[in-house]
């Protein structure tokens, strides 16, 4: 399950899905149930997925989903076992269907279940400051510290030997062991996902979570959005500097170092042992390979292969950049 926290209101009749999308089903669809919505890589039989860009052609070829929301140009990439639901706007249609399965994921209001930590079972096991609030379905391991005015909202799992700074908000997040989250961070809120339509903006439900693996450090003022369909992941032993924004569905590998004021847009994948200088911007849906170094102030707008050093805007080979800017 991508998100162990939001309730799945499925199964839903395939006929109902067709009605929502204004499609005409054939006779075989009337009795079939759809149990969940997932991304191309994780969807299984009797589930629905979506396919909106040729960038994900390889995943589409291998999907095990029974149904896929897509368009007429992309449907030929799907396996024969997957029935294409052709729509004009794939992402907007996916948003509508996700809202049916996970209606609780649309809004991101404050958690009204929180109570002062002194009134919880953690009062004896956690070293905490003043005005610390804890929500429902929270687990905190041994030898953990939480700073002043921090709120751990519902649906958070924290491992052992973790340190959470002051004035931080965490929700919909799994934190592994020996993780340091410094002051003024916001982790697990929904991402910047919405669709303009007829002078209105429709929010995309974010049913993923944030996963922070062992031995990470998250700098002051960092914002890490939870995933929309898949999860946002910070790999083992990765350190983030201050004032960094990690958007929804971003995957960062292990042993990476990211300097201050970096922004990584949604669904980009960062490899292992990557070093990113300050004030770098990484566009969405990109793949940055292993052992890559990106110079400060760069703008990354295309994939970067393994073992590469780049700089500038658009980011290009470091030697070429230095030669052009002597």
Describe the structure.
- By secondary structure, the protein is mainly β.
- The protein has 2 domains: 12-105, Udp-n-acetylmuramoylalanyl-d-glutamate--2,6- Diaminopimelate Ligase, Chain: A, domain 1 (3-Layer(aba) Sandwich); 115-324, Hexapeptide repeat proteins (UDP N-Acetylglucosamine Acyltransferase, domain 1, 3 Solenoid), CATH 2.160.10.
- Helices cover 10% and strands 27% of the residues.
- The protein is built from 4 helices and 36 strands.
- The chain has helices spanning 14-20, 57-62, 90-101, 318-324, and strands at 12-13, 33-34, 48-50, 67-70, 83-86, 115-116, 126-128, 133-134, 138-140, 144-146, 151-152, 156-158, 163-164, 169-170, 173-175, 180-181, 186-187, 194-197, 200-203, 210-212, 217-218, 223-224, 232-234, 239-240, 245-246, 251-252, 257-258, 263-264, 269-270, 275-276, 281-282, 287-288, 293-294, 299-300, 309-311, 316-317.
- The strands form 6 sheets. An 11-stranded mixed sheet has the order 7-10-13-16-21-24-27-30-33-35-36.
- The longest helix is centred in the first third of the chain and has 12 residues, at 90-101.
- The N and C termini lie far apart (52 Å).
């Amino acid at each position: 399950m991508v998100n162990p926290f939001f309730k799945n209101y499925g199964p839903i009749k395939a006929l109902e899905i067709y009605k929502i999308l204004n499609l005409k089903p054939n006779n075989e669809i009337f009795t079939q149930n759809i149990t969940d919505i997932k991304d191309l890589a994780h969807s299984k039989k009797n589930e629905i997925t979506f396919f909106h860009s040729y960038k994900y052609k390889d995943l589409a070829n291998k999907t095990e989903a029974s149904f896929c929301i897509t368009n007429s140009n992309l449907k030929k990439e799907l396996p024969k076992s997957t029935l294409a639901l052709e729509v004009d706007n794939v992402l907007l249609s996916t948003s509508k269907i996700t809202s049916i399965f996970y209606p609780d994921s649309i809004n991101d209001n404050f958690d009204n279940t929180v109570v002062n930590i002194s009134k919880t079972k953690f009062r004896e096991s956690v070293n905490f400051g003043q005005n610390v609030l804890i929500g429902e379905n929270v687990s905190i391991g041994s030898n953990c510290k939480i700073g002043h005015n921090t709120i751990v909202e519902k649906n958070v799992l924290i491992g052992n030997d973790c340190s959470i700074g002051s004035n931080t908000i965490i929700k919909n997040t799994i934190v592994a062991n020996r993780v340091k989250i410094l002051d003024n961070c916001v982790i697990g809120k929904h991402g910047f996902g919405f669709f303009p339509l007829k002078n209105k903006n429709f929010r995309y439900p974010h049913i993923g979570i944030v996963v922070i693996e062992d031995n990470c450090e998250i700098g002051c003022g960092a914002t890490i959005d939870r995933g929309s369909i898949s999860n946002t992941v910070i790999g083992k032993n990765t350190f983030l500097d201050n004032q960094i924004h990690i958007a929804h569905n971003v995957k960062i590998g292990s042993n990476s170092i990211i300097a201050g004021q970096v922004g990584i847009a949604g669904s980009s994948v960062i490899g292992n042992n990557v070093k990113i200088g300050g004030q770098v911007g990484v566009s969405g849906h990109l793949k940055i390979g292993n052992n890559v170094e990106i110079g400060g102030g760069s703008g990354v707008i295309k994939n970067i292969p393994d073992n590469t050093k780049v700089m500038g805007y658009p980011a290009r080979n470091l030697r070429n950049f230095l030669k052009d800017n002597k």
